[in-house]
Amino acid sequence: MALSLYVDTARWRAHQKSVLDQFPGLVPVCKGNGYGFGHERLADEAIRFGSDTLAVGTTYEAARIKDWFSGDLLVLTPFRRGEEPVPLPDRVIRSVSSVDGVHALVGARVVIECMSSMKRHGVKEEELGQLHAAIEDVRLEGFALHLPLDRTDGSDAVEEVIGWMDRLRAARLPLHTMFVSHLRAEELARLQQQFPQTRFRARIGTRLWLGDHEATEYRGAVLDVTRVVKGDRFGYRQQKAASDGWLVVVAGGTSHGVGLEAPKALHGVMPRAKGVARAGLATVNRNLSPFVWAGKQRWFAEPPHMQVSILFVPSDAQEPKVGDELVAHLRHTTTQFDRLVDR
């Protein structure tokens, strides 16, 4: 019995096609845990829809995925002098975010990242003049801009890209290809219309693989059910049951990512209030699990174990049975499944 990821394959692939149609020349991104699907599965999907390039997070991911994807592999993490060398084929393209990095990659295929309003990494405007000599010794695949998701200052993403196009052109640098992240389809179309001699390639991961929430569902199998009455002690810490009900052992623990949550940016009073409320409940060992039974998310009876979680289901709910599956609201990018089931 397992924590399973169920995929409505026809629906999932229909969504992929809709994204591909909106973003001609799209570069699919396969990084981290493969957006919850795994690297091998996403490499297979990229081959299926005919992608010539697959973007990965690190050189270590490229070393694994090279055996599953025969096209170009674009490493998104920028090269740094002194990094551990990883044997990679010539079809791997390295991202570079400094002039020094370009100088260090003689003969390599490179994409040069420009410093966007993200302010994460990238070549700055005042450094563009130094790139002329540097790019003579590399095979330049293009430039890239990684843009922010939110623009709370009211700025325009297209204008930011245009600004960089103008700077690169003024510096007399080649503008045959520009890789971009986090642009809408209509924004990409505006840029392509304004700069017809440049090929704009959107690097897309989340929107491509996870854009249709109804196409996927995690479920944890019930492994054991034990009746308890108020005051019964249970678990590693021998806590007392607060009321009558059932202790339900369900597949899915910390090794799967259950109980681990990436921090989220909160906007507005209500989400912040809910966050404070959850934190307050956690101080008295009350933590809501991601597992749903009888229409409600159920509470952890105690912190999740490595491969299972123990939930408390009160006696006024239907009793779960061994073999039942509980839907689990889990974040794809932090979850590892036991099995993937295509439906």
Write up what this structure looks like:
With about 350 residues, the chain is an alpha/beta fold. It has nine helices and 18 strands. The strands form three sheets. The chain has an eight-stranded parallel beta sheet. A six-stranded antiparallel barrel has the order 10-13-16-15-14-17. A two-stranded antiparallel ribbon has the order 11-12. α6 (about 155-170) links the parallel β7 (about 140-145) and β8 (about 175-180). α6 (about 155-170) packs parallel to α7 (about 185-195).
Briefly characterize the structure.
With 343 residues, the chain is an alpha/beta fold. It has helices at 9-22, 39-48, 59-65, 99-104, 131-135, 157-170, 185-194, 206-210, 269-282, and strands at residues 3-7, 27-28, 53-56, 72-75, 92-96, 109-113, 139-146, 177-181, 199-204, 216-228, 233-234, 239-240, 245-251, 288-293, 296-300, 308-314, 325-328, 339-342. An eight-stranded parallel beta sheet has the order 2-9-8-7-6-5-4-3.
